[in-house]
Design goal:
Elements: H1 2-38, H2 41-45, E1 48-55, E2 62-63, H3 64-75, E3 78-91, E4 94-105, E5 110-122, E6 126-135
Parallel strand pairs: 1-6
Antiparallel strand pairs: 1-2, 3-4, 4-5, 5-6
């Protein structure tokens, strides 16, 4: 009987830890959007692990802090804008986000579109991987 109680307590502790980790990971994801909207490149890059991979339509995979920083400073076609997060779903080490973005591109055009992001979290609450998809007419 003691073993059963010990297992039940261990499972309860694991669930509580997973819930706390999920809440902290979700907060990190939401912080990412605040940082990117504020143009805080060092802050947002720090949310990724040093070897993280970011996949985004139209670009080769962006790997590591140096490439992430180069992307956000030199290659990103967005000059400024605001992300609005509509839905966040978290399970284990994965977090999915659906939202809207409104802003201005570097060429002066305005853009308003929906997006979906999928994050894989590493231990310690940093992003190991991020994949972005846009809802935009292409075909």
């Amino acid at each position: 009987m003691t073993t059963t109680n010990a297992n039940a307590n261990a499972n309860a502790n694991a669930t509580a830890t997973a819930t706390a980790d999920t809440a902290a990971d979700t907060a990190a994801v939401l912080r990412y959007y605040d940082l990117v909207d504020a143009g805080d490149v060092p802050g947002l890059v720090d949310l990724f692990t040093p070897e993280a991979t970011y996949r985004r339509p139209g670009y080769e995979p962006i790997v590591g802090h140096a490439e992430l920083e180069r992307f956000y400073r030199e290659q990103r076609v967005i000059r400024e804008g605001k992300h609005t997060v509509c839905t966040v779903v978290a399970q284990g080490d994965q977090i999915a986000v659906h939202g809207e973005f409104a802003g201005e591109l570097v060429d002066g055009r305005t853009v308003h579109l929906r997006f979906a992001d999928f994050f894989v979290m590493a231990p310690g609450g940093r992003f190991a991987r991020r994949d972005t998809f846009f809802f935009a007419p292409l075909v």
